[in-house]
Amino acid sequence: MSMSMSIEKPQKVIVVLLDSLNRHMLGAYGGKEFDTPNIDRLAKRSVRFNNHQAGSLPCMPARHDILVGALDFLWRPWGSIELWEKPLTHYLRKKAVPTMLLTDHPHLFETGGENYHTDFHAWDYMRGHEGDPWKTLPDPSWIGTPAMPARLRGMPYEYSRTYFREEKDYPGPKTMSAAAEWLNNHGKEHKQFLLFIDEFDPHEPFDTPAPWANRYFPEWDQDLHIWPPYAEGAIRKGIISESEGRHIRCNYGSKLSMIDHWLGKLLDVMDHEEMWEDTMLMLCTDHGHYLGEKDIWGKPRVPHYEPMGHTPLLISSPGLASNQIDSLTTNVDIFATLCDIFDLSVDHVTHGVSLWPLLTGVKKQVREWALSGYYGQWVQIHDGAHKYSRAPSENGFPLSMWSNRWSTMPIKGANLDFPYFPSPDARAKLDYMPGSDVPCIRQPFAEGDLLPYWAMAPKTGDNHLYNLHDDPLEKNNLVNSLVEKTMAELLSKALESVAAPEEQQKRLGLR
User: Fold this and answer.
1) Are residues 37 and 119 in the same domain?
2) Pick from 326, 344, 369: which residue ends a domain?
3) Which domain holds residue 485?
């Protein structure tokens, strides 16, 4: 124990956040379907966390967990950093620790995510992924492009992809190449730094050039299907065929293998410059992605089954031997860990616990439960063995949005009939977030209101409880058992512990 406690904290940290990274598809976690040699290569020198859970979902709420350290799905949906809180980079800036963001993530530069990058010392945005409004017309010549014919959906990406001339022009390869270049040119020049690589791959569109395209389904002879449906029962309902489903899943695998290949360029710099001796490298994600498990596809509004909520976390750090940790952890703990490593004092309320004592063997467990969920939908609690997803008990209300930024995920595409999210109205009141004296707009919603996208149409009374030790595929729902009563009580206490709005207890039927 004394030897573990003597390990020094690194002062150089690299965080690689791959979006929608499926734990169960990585070789390091037992996946055999797709090739991930470089993630597996990293895992061999890392501490592998086996019970790491998503928190706030989906994309921007998860980044709020990691960069701000506070769960926000109990108070609001997808949104920017609020007035009562500050990101990790704000506190690092105060300590004069250089921070660099390299990303191709379009949501960081649109309404609802527009201020997560602003406190980095420097940042660079690689254009052209998914909804990035990069070009107004496709390349009129399209000569030499490696992009293969694909089914269209009216997204900006379908213009962007015509400008890629070779594999390294795709956003994922561009981002990882820029990260390797920054590390090679700047990594030795700073005594401290945080390099944050927010890589949108393997998120859709599942579009890759040769030799990746159709690598796992070579007999496919039609246009690429690069946009997965967001649906429950997609094959059963005839939204896609079984063959199309296999093709979509394999296209995800191609995207995964391609970004794994380019991650290898970063690891090569770590090897060549011997940076493993003084630099921590953390690989994480926001959440998983359904690719046919239980015939669910994309990220529809369903409980967080294992493919979505059980996520990978690998941490390599000087002085730490390769190891496995089975203790329960979650994404807000990443923020707490980075604060611990850089010795930061944070002013706002946070919900994470540092993983450094787990990494060094000082502790065997740092938390007894973890909360997760989408705003306005199921609220989930995990105790390390059981996972309980509690749905609204009646109509999904009462429900309020707490925000002074008043932004949420914009809906883009060819169909512009979807209305913008309305402003607060006469029902709004000023209230206060836990631990803050900054007045906050609290807007109550009621039936008939236009709700934020991820909060629409909550499925009421649909509770799920699984013993994951005995039932890892979540086939045996234990609701109405004595265990449910215990987990419901734990959920209620956990909501009290984070000072969640009392209305959450009411809407979930816990009061």
Assistant:
1) yes
2) 369
3) 371-507
Q: What is the pLDDT of residue 150?
A: 87
Q: What angle do CA 425, 461, 70 make, to 5 degrees?
A: 55
Beta strands in 391-476 (DSSP E): 399-402, 429-432, 439-445, 464-467
- How far is residue 48's CA from residue 316's CA, in Å, rounded to a whole number? 9
Alpha helix stretches (DSSP H) within 87-227: 88-94, 157-160, 171-186
User: What is the rounded CA–CA span in Å between residue 347 and residue 457?
Assistant: 36
Same domain, 183 and 277: yes
The most distant pair of C-alpha atoms in the chain lies apart, rounded to whole Å, by: 66
182 Cβ contact partners less than 8 Å away, ≥ 6 residues apart = 100, 102, 195
Q: Strand order of the sheet with strand 379-382?
A: 370-373, 379-382, 386-390, 464-467
**Burial of 430 from C-beta contacts in 10 A (0-12 / 13-18 / 19+):** exposed
Name the domain boundary from 348, 369, 390. Answer: 369
DSSP summary character for residue 359? H
pTM: 0.96
Looking at the fold, whether 397 and 341 belong to one and the same domain comes out as: no
* Residue 156 sits in the same domain as residue 217: yes
Q: Is 241 exposed, middle or buried (0-12, 13-18, 19+ CB in 10 A)?
A: exposed
Which residue is listed with tokens 């359904």? 290
Q: Are residues 289 and 151 in the same domain?
A: yes
Output 87-91 pairs: Cβ under 8 A, ≥24 positions apart: 87/116, 87/119, 88/194, 88/335, 88/338, 88/339, 88/344, 89/119, 89/120, 89/121, 89/194, 90/119, 91/339, 91/342, 91/344, 91/345, 91/346
Question: Which residues in 249-359 belong to E strands, given as ranges?
Answer: 279-284, 290-291, 296-298, 310-316, 323-325, 329-330
Question: CA-CA distances (angstroms) from residue 170 to 167, 258, 404?
Answer: 6, 10, 36
Identify whether residues 342 and 379 lie together within a single domain. Answer: no
Q: What is the count of structural domains for the chain?
A: 2
Percentage of the chain modeled with pLDDT above 70: 97
Amino acid at 180: A
Sign, Cα dihedral of 205, 208, 209, 213 = negative
Residues paired with residue 162 on neighbouring β-strands, in sequence order: none
458 and 337 together in one domain: no
Treating both helix axes as pointing N-terminal to C-terminal, what angle do 242-272 and 171-186 enclose, rounded to 10 degrees?
A: 10
pLDDT in tens, 151-179: 888 889 999 999 999 999 999 999 999 99
Are 466 and 359 spatial neighbours (Cβ–Cβ below 8 Å)? no
376 and 352 both lie in a single domain: no
